[in-house]
Fold this sequence. Notes:
Elements lengths: L3 H19 L11 H28 L8 H10 L5 H19 L6 H6 L4 H23 L6
Helix pairs in contact: 1-2, 1-6, 2-3, 2-4, 3-4, 4-6
Amino acid sequence: MVDEDRVLRLLDRIRGDVERLARYAHEPPALDDEITVAGIKYLFVTAIEGCAKVAHHIGSAQGWAAAETNGDAVRELGRRDVLTPDLASAVADAVGFRNLLVHQYADVDDERVLGHLAHLDDLRSFVVAVTRWLLRASAEESYIPTER
């Protein structure tokens, strides 16, 4: 069974990270503002990692086959109608970006990082879609048919 409180806490953290990132979407910092750019990288990592945690938790709680990668876990949400396939693909791509940030941090082109600020809607849509799925799943669980 999905731990709704846990998933909602994770979604709230993702939402907060995205709100902080959005502050820079319209007016990105200068590339030589190393501290701010580093903060943006960190917020991307934590927001996208949150999406992966949500995907793994839902998959595990639903008894689906264990995903081998974070991207696979997100794509499974698309196959199971938690996300649209297009959104699942976009968030899985974001997982790849997160992996690049984590594993090749020093070599990541900061201009590319700032370019990803234009794709925050994918993360926002992830939060909305999972929240809607939770509400549907909760309503279906609480429905008890009456005998006639």
